[in-house]
Amino acid sequence: MKRSILIFFQITLLLMICVPVAWAGSAISMSLDKTKASGGDVVTATGITLPNSWVPIKVLDEAKNIVLFDTGKSDDKGYFSIDFKVPNNAFGVLTVVVGEGSNVTTGTLNGPQEPNDGQPDTGDKTPNPGNSPGVGGGPSPDKPVVSTTGKANVKPGAGGTVSLGSEVTIDIPANALKATEKVEVKVEKVRDIPEVPADFRLVGKVYEFSVGGQSSYNFAKEVTITLSFDPSLLQPGETPAIYYYDENEKQWVKLGGTISGNSISVKVSHFTKFAVMAELEAVPVITDKYKLIDITGHWAENNIKELVAIGVISGYPDGSFKPDNNITRAEFASILVKAFELKSQSGKVFADTVGHWAQDAIATAAHYGIVSGYDTNTFGPDDTITREQMAVMIVNATNLTPAQVELPFIDSNSISAWAREAMATAVNNGIINGYPDNTVRPQGNASRAEAVTVIMNVL
Predict the structure, then answer these.
(1) What distance in Å separates the CA atoms of residue 312 and residue 332, rounded to the nearest whole number?
(2) Which domains does the chain carry?
(3) Which of 20, 281, 379, 406 places its Cα 20 to 30 Å from the Cα of 354?
């Protein structure tokens, strides 16, 4: 009987120990490296939460206004460390909140004491109303509002910052609003988007800004808006810029802006709808695409003209073709896909082709077995292509019978083993030729003119 009772208590004790441990795995803890800080001081919040999770952090003033919002991330063991700077407009006891939902914890930080009379702090903490005699001060200055919810009531004399998460931010300086009392400043996403010009593309959301319910509002002084955009939507040669929608003319008007990472900022004096769009850089127009300025008399002139005519390759915006420049592996793969009119396929995407301008062409060529990488993750799209690599790709793209012949060139022994059959097949079928000195130069870099000639020999 005693033994049974003992076992029962042991089991009960074990359960009491295990339950808190399981709970702690989903809780969040936090400590601050300071208990007191002034405006501009950097404070570090450290703690433990779920591994590899985002950790939001907010700082609230005594009126429970959010004066700072940021995020960090925990490591694979759940540890996090977030540095934040105490805003200059934060006074009194500040509340630091980390986490989200029901998984949050708080800490307190003694911020600087706000002077009541606009005079230097003498150490006397006795409250003194601004209208009390003998101290010579007026009411304390208004503090700029800070909101991350997309709307806030802003005092004209104070201004503030209104943001919609990390998507868009409005910085309103003091006295920019034409009002005498608090007025609501708001930003929201637009669902009914005005038509975008054919030569432009949205690379972010469209937002409408309003003041006091007015979506068309003129400020007394300029405010700054910052919009985020998706860099992955940009194509080579495209530049993002902020545009506003002119309701009277029913058209988008370019403002430009300063780019920083995935956001762009611009100063404006009025509110309406705003968006980030991508535009192609202006390039000189060539009236005759066959009249390339640097191929006259070149040995590959006719081949270049023919391939340009069918749209497989093109010249540069200045009218040049640069026939003797080297060609890259990505460029040659793209030419092959166009020349053989291959249907786009979602084939192998290498780690170094993700986001590359030729990603789709390389994936399509890989699907049809035309190209392969150096290894499973590496294609080297911007590496110059060698003549033996070019031979392998072009033979893979055809149904030619493999040739088992010895090549007569004096440097035939320098052809890589993996390229011997393809080089022999290409030479035997008149696709690739040697040089006047009886070399084939398998490791030599192929030029644009050579690549064009190889394609034309197949076609």
Answers:
(1) 10
(2) 28-110 (2.60.40.1930), 145-280 (2.60.220.30), 301-458 (no CATH)
(3) 281
